[in-house]
Amino acid sequence: MLRFSRGFHRYGPLRQGQNLTEKIVQKYAVGVAEGKLVHSGDYVSIKPAHCMSHDNSWPVALKFMGLGATRIHDARQIVNTLDHDIQNSSEKNLTKYKNIENFAKSHGVDFYPAGRGIGHQIMVEEGYAFPLNMTVASDSHSNTYGGIGALGTPVVRTDAAAIWATGQTWWQIPPVAQVELKGELPHGVSGKDIIVALCGLFNQDQVLNHAIEFTGDLLHRLPVDFRLTIANMTTEWGALSGLFPVDKTLINWYRETRLPKLGAGHPRVNEQALSQLEESLPKWKPDADARYAKKLTIDLSTLNHYVSGPNSVKVSNTVQELSRQNIKVDKAYLVSCTNSRLSDLEAAASVVCPSGTTKINKISPNVKFYVAAASSEVESDARASGAWEKLMKAGCIPLPPGCGPCIGLGAGLLEPGEVGISATNRNFKGRMGSKDALAYLASPAVVAASAILGKIASPAEVFGTQEHFSTSVATLTEENLSSAETPAPADNTRPAEILEGFPSEISGELVLCDADNINTDGIYPGKYTYQDDVPRETMAKVCMENYDPEFQTKAKKGDIIVSGFNFGTGSSREQAATAILAKGINLVVSGSFGNIFSRNSINNALLTLEIPALVEKLRTKFKDSPKELTRRTGWFLKWDVANRKVVVTEDSLEGPVVLEQTVGELGKNLQEIIVKGGLEGWVKAQL
Asked: In which residue ranges of the chain is pLDDT below 50?
């Protein structure tokens, strides 16, 4: 999506400084004009250090081969892991796994079999994701890599196939939010408590489709495992990345935990790499005049154990409040890429068997507590430390290292009417089993305590001690840093270059679909999603069918859809974009977009613009009119692509102006993708 410029682009009379996100993107951007600094709002072609795919490696491989590609552009860039459906021993799944393994071996791609661990954990353990690099994965929890100072962000399958074939794909640098973690955590409160609190307290889409940079005077006291958990769940908070700074704490963590494991000759994590990293740190600080879209602050010293749910990460309460409600627990989970590292297993084990004692607090007979380490290395370490044995003696049920019940696969799923508490990242309705079950999220210590007592409870209740946490609401503040209009710098006033075949101007009448959170099922019904070879004519007829059947008669070829906020949220179906194109609509304007929809739009040559001010003006205009889900507005939009300017007029393209808006530059790399009919066409042209 092409965002409007206010607060999201270059500022100042000459050259605007860069934040850390922009500096890392600059390092991995290709084809950028010499001397040009990249900033939020810019479309860039990126060549990430690494690209991981897991069980979806075979669908990516099929796309790759469908492009006509015969060799991986850079085998060292690609990583394949098997981690999602590893408990499934059906012939069909085993065949898929063998196909992935054979493909990886034939192309010289690094491959990790089922049982080695969750792909994101492997990427960190094996140093593919490394401080200050940009690493992507065809999985939404690629944000995890931000915990070790790498810019991690998800891509969709078409992007992954493009990277396999050409080494690169595209990215629009999002607005960057600064999140200050002020103060120091009370003893016993964890990184999971921080991110659950952030998701629940800042729950009005403050960071939707933003990159996050975490700051704080005492951030160096936050353990790396806490950082990984927080970064992992910035996905659920709505962000595209969650980046922690590189500091002494992180470098010491590599020297103390990774180098002894990997050995001196490791190709990615070695003393030379760490020394070079340490020497380069001064230049990797955000510039003094770096631009941020907003700043959110939370005082860690005011935090308690937080629990999210049921069935939503946007609802969070202290564990004491939920404990008073006597919410029974049927199943508990210590699994997933969020909280199954060694420190997490040890935190749960310390509740099962408190330090200095040999007493084992048994799991309630009414609860099943499932445990899986994030990787085979983590399980081995947990066995060596004694944590694994304590958990097993308490009555935990072991699962193999990898994903599982977190994504509704394998043993231990929630049944109708059951309540689960989990140290995972998502508690969406039906994700971990039945849609008629309730799921809560919490830290490993709280999950263990709840499993022991048979209800949502705190560790202190197991120990019979008094907790000394603040009883007041956590202290937090929000500051919008992009509220004032600021003139664009001199280097942004020259017309952008327009490629042959790309329109210099795009215009049409605005058709208002007046709702927020229109999901992909509303745009393209799920009953058609898995029907192969649906004709374009049929796709056009069912476009927006689940949102509003009257859309078909009200919207015409050449119109421009304008909708509310978070348009295209939901599943990753590409048909949500291609159905709109089939209807003859080439541009969608919204207050904001679901990120996966945005990627699928560009990948399929559908243009998008974010203009919140236009949405608000239209809603004001029609606030006293009878409600219509789809409305022809009588307003017309003209986008002067070369001059980065949008003009909205009333009654006709020559009518009175109701809005003028500067937008970001649509770079040549994105124009080329659109001209080629989408990313697959662009890749074929490259090949």
From this structure: 4-14, 483-491
Asked if residue 647 is part of any domain, the answer here is yes
Same domain, residue pair 431 and 558: no
What is the distance between the alpha carbons of residues 505 and 565, in angstroms, rounded to a whole number?
A: 25
Cis peptide bond prior to 310, omega within 30° of 0: yes
Residue type, 60: V
Q: For 97, left (φ over 0), alpha (ψ -120 to 50), or beta?
A: alpha
Domain residues for the domain of 626 are 494-686
Residue 351 in any domain: the answer is yes
Query: Does 502 share its domain with 567?
Result: yes
CB atoms within 10 A of CB 393: 14
Question: Residue 23's pLDDT is what?
Answer: 98
DSSP run (H or E) holding 64: helix 57-66
Q: How far apart are CA 56 and CA 60, in angstroms?
A: 6
- Whole-angstrom distance, CA of residue 424 vs CA of residue 118: 13
Sign of CA dihedral 407, 413, 419, 421: negative
Residue 48 domain-assigned?
A: no
Report the alpha-carbon distance of residue 22 to residue 557 in Å, rounded.
38
Q: Which of 440, 463, 486 is the last residue of a domain?
A: 463
Q: Would strands 587-590 and 607-610 be described as parallel, antiparallel, or unpaired?
A: parallel
Are 212 and 177 a contacting pair, CB within 8 Å? Answer: yes
Residue pair 100/160 in contact (Cβ under 8 Å)? The answer is no
Compute the distance between CA of residue 375 and CA of residue 382 in angstroms, rounded to an integer: 11
CA 145, CA 27: separation in Å to the nearest integer? 17
Whether 533 and 663 share a structural domain: yes
DSSP states along 112-138: E-TTSB-HHHHHHHTTSS-TT-EEEES
Q: What is the pairing mode between strands 2-3 and 211-215?
A: unpaired
In angstroms, rounded to a whole number, what is the distance separating the alpha carbons of residues 268 and 372? Answer: 27
Number of domains in the chain: 2
Edge-to-edge strand list for the sheet holding 110-112? 110-112, 78-81, 50-53, 134-137, 151-154
Where a domain ends, among 422, 443, 463? Answer: 463
446 lies in the same domain as 380: yes
- Tokens 């410029």 locate to 5
Tokens of 221: 């006291």
Cα distances (angstroms) measured from residue 491 to each of 29, 30, 210, 665: 19, 19, 25, 12
Quick check: 539 and 565 in contact, CB under 8 A?
A: no
Parallel, antiparallel, or unpaired: how do β-strands 241-243 and 211-215 relate?
parallel
Shared domain for 499 and 646, answered yes or no, is: yes
Q: Is 64 left (phi over 0), alpha (psi -120 to 50) or beta?
A: alpha
pTM of the shown model: 0.86
3-state secondary structure of 668: helix
> Which of 473, 479, 429 has the alpha carbon at shortest distance from 293?
479
Q: Is 87 helix (H, G, I), strand (E, B) or coil?
A: coil
pLDDT at 8: 40
- Check: CB of residue 333 under 8 Å from CB of residue 404: no
Residue 469 is predicted with a pLDDT of: 65
CA distances from 661 to 89, 151, 173, 492, 609 (A): 56, 30, 19, 14, 11
CB contact at 8 A, 311 and 427: yes
- 478 within some domain: no
CATH number reported for the structural domain that contains residue 359 in this entry: 3.30.499.10
Q: How far apart, in whole angstroms, are the C-alpha atoms of residue 137 and residue 119?
A: 9
CATH number at residue 554: 3.20.19.10
Q: Are 670 and 576 members of one domain?
A: yes
